[in-house]
Amino acid sequence: MSREIDPQTIEAISTSVAKKINHETIKRQKQDRDWRLRNTKLLLKNYHILKEHCVNVDASIKEYEESIFDPEEIELESIMASKAKTRKMVWYIDEMLAAYARYADKAGEAAQRRYTTLDQYYIRPKRMNYDAMGEMFSVSERTVRRDLEDARKEFSVFLFGVFAIEDLSDE
């Protein structure tokens, strides 16, 4: 008992499947974009903690190696690898911050303000709040918030390259 499916039904099924695939692809791309931007925000928010974690990393690794514990017993290799990766990540963030500063210097006053906002809010040991930065730049708190959001997006490009550019072009 063979039943043939008419062309209209095949077309309807194909259209429905194509729409579903397209919807899922867009959803996944948005999730990837959100993840990268959240990741940038998390890295910046925890910058000082990561930086402190890297203080005397070489000495810590040497100390772990010379400890009385058996490295296999408590998996010190994993701890040492984590510390080394954190140090590399902090170095990379510092390099990208320097690159962002150079870019901002060349790009004009608005770009310099965005970089400084990011620097003052996340990087400086004595962080400034929105009101203080607004007074410093003679702009509203809303402008400071917008500048900070734009600065995080720009900095994402420095951290993640072409993937961040694709994300920003989709907005």
Verbal overview:
With 171 residues, the protein is mostly helical. The chain has 9 helices and no strands. It has helices at residues 7-45, 47-53, 57-65, 71-74, 76-107, 109-123, 130-137, 141-160, 162-169. The longest helix is centred in the N-terminal third of the chain and has 39 residues, at 7-45. It is flat. The mean pLDDT is 81.
Keywords, please?
single chain, 171 residues
Strand and helix layout:
Elements: H1 7-45, H2 47-53, H3 57-65, H4 71-74, H5 76-107, H6 109-123, H7 130-137, H8 141-160, H9 162-169
Helix pairs in contact: 1-8, 1-9, 2-5, 3-5, 5-6, 5-8, 6-8, 7-8, 8-9
What summary fits the major beta sheet?
A: none
Cα distance, first to last residue?
Answer: 52 Å
Q: Give the radius of gyration.
A: 24 Å
How large a portion of the residues is in β-strands, by DSSP E?
A: under 5%
Detail the poorly predicted runs: none
What is the H-and-E element order? Answer: HHHHHHHHH
**Portion of residues within helices:** over 70%
Mean pLDDT: 81
By helix and strand content, what is the structural category?
mainly alpha
The shape is flat
